Amino acid sequence: MMQAALHEELKIEYPGANIVFEENFVDVAVTTDMEKILFEIKSDFCTRRVLRLAIGQLLEYAYYWDNFPEKIVRLVAVGRTALSLEDERYLRFLKVKLNVPIEYRQVKLPSEA
Prior knowledge:
Layout: H1 2-13, E1 18-23, E2 26-31, E3 35-41, H2 47-64, E4 72-79, H3 85-96, E5 102-106
Parallel strand pairs: 3-4, 4-5
Antiparallel strand pairs: 1-2, 2-3
């Protein structure tokens, strides 16, 4: 369900991009001319748990499947709930202090909108 909802959003957001599902264990990979975006979907209602579970997988994917060294790599944890202020601070810490290209994306299912 979440994968289908994300797919619809990505088709609009990245027209013409190559969008691939479930390849090399990566939930969704979007390849544009400039970047490779890896998405890890977690359906947990606790955003903090989504981040905890997704970040390790995303880091592993970026390392082991780096067959796109010329592209900018973005890592996106996908969950159903919004980030709390503490979650936002945590992501900012990872991006700024540790230089990890991590983001969070909320995908609401039609029944949750």
